[in-house]
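Recap from last week: sequence in, structure out.
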Amino acid sequence: MKTTAGRMAIGAVLASVCGFAAPALAEQNVTVDPGQTWLGFMNVFELPSNGGGYVFGSPWGTGDLAASFAGDGLTLSPNTNTYNPNDPFWVQPNGEGNKWMNANMYVEQGNWDGETVNFRGHTLVNSFVDGYTSLAFIKVLDPSQGWATIASTTIPLFAGQDFELSMNVPTIPGVVTQYGFETNGANANPVGVDRLGHVEVTAIPGPAGAGLMAIAGLVIGRHRR
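Predicted structure tokens:
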């Protein structure tokens, strides 16, 4: 009986710290986690110099955006997989990209209507040159309205700084919440793309995990005496 009681006490402490005891949470805390299922979507526009009109949008492989994890870090770079010097749709006669790319790297979640989403992370590097940007975002889309974005918040990414943004998801059944990053700029020649820069983001460094383990260890120790 003492062993069972000890396990129940440990579970109660961990549940209260981690926040997974209740069947539905009023608050969702998310970060840059490679263990989540990350998706890709690309919106393609004409260049601003050509009017900036919307051309098309479709799901894309995350590597094609280009966005990829290495360990716990996510790197976001200008799009290069569309670059084809023989196709004037994608490349100008002078060799520069001919389309403006809005690359979305994100995690998607339903059933968060009425809850608060907090998205936090840390920007390790932002070396983008002028003309390229990357933002963290939280968006809410409504499938019943043709996947229209009904709420959105963004924040720029500054090298060496944490980022944090929050949103109260509208209480509308069936809406879909997305959090992640959008990278904007012209499609680029893969030869020399490094000179355009990139962004690296990760979870906020800190002792949160160590603190959780310390609490668990304290409870276990008490019940071993």
